Amino acid sequence: MSNISTLEAIPQCYATPSAGMHTSHTLPLKLQAIADAGFRLAEIAFPDLEAYAQQENPNYKKIGNRGRGDVDVLCQVARKISSLCEKLGLKVLAVHPFSKFEGYEDLGKREESFDRATTWFKVLKALNCQMLQVGSTDDPSASSDLNVISRDLRQLADEAIAQDPPIKIAYELWAWGTHTNTWEGVWEVCKRVDRPNFGLCLDTFQISARTYMLPDPPHTTHEDIFPSPPGVPVPLHLTSSLRRLTEVFSEPAAREKIFYFQISDGSGPGRVSSAELTKTAKEKGISPLYAWSNAWRPLPYMEDIDPGTQYGGFLPVLDVIEAVLRTGWRGPWSYEVFYEADMSRDDPGVPLKWTKAAMESRKRIFEALKPFHMDSN
Prior knowledge:
The chain is α/β, with parallel strands linked by helices. The chain has a single domain, classed as Divalent-metal-dependent TIM barrel enzymes (TIM Barrel), CATH 3.20.20. Helix content is about 45%, strand content about 10%. It has an 8-stranded parallel barrel with strand order 1-2-3-4-5-6-7-9, surrounded by 7 helices. Strands 8-10 form a two-stranded antiparallel ribbon. Helix 2 links the parallel strand 1 (about 10-15) and strand 2 (about 40-45). It is globular and about 50 Å long.
């Protein structure tokens, strides 16, 4: 058994897009709320940074797929945000999400992806941030060949480590990813990349999401999009997968490849409509899993924290957290939650509501874990 004090010492981080979804929730307001809630680490979303650049400079041109746009302006804004973080006592843990990057066999698309990476590296330097999160691609035109995928990410890692200061790459499984959408898949890629600055971002939602929602809506109906309703035991295949996760990352060389860990729950049937999800997914041309992720990921214990509300969180978050903790890993946790029904309100109190709730969620998670991590003396 590990000592509960080792859990309480885990660095806590909060993601800026999870502090509000309305345009009035500016990046400085979100960062202030993150600091006021007691966090000392922040994960910054690139879209949040660009939205602030647009607010500060109305003629700002966003960064395109090839990394072109008002790069100098964005870097100036990033330096301003870095200064604000320093004033607030915050360190930028990571910037996300760098997406649709790997697996292209077309030389033009590969060149475009690496040009974009060069621009992001400049922004990270301006932010004084040394970690880039890369989401597993959801582009159906990308190759399914793990050698091709790993080749691109290996080159990205090589270019990242050559930066001054060097940058780490945290590869995150996205449950709606075209080819790598499980922790086993991103781990296999990580082993093939085999670079010291390339590791993983694990996520409670992403690890369990495909167990609780069918990923291929053309072959399902609205009624059966959630094959595992709330209240049922954790499916055996997920339990086995979590057991393997613990075994794999208990090895020291593998454990050090977990760069950070994102925490969130998922709203289930009764709170989120399957018909609504499939409709949103069709309108936006995305997977229902992606639509679910974008709008229905509350904090664990959110209904207890905010009495009288119905958030409908039902995923086995504690099971996933415990599987990671049993490896002995004690790196940073980042709360990345998306609950559009509340976060999109034009209310300046929204950012502090959610950041403070995350700190309360942390307390309740640790309380629930205590029986498994009691002091040994």
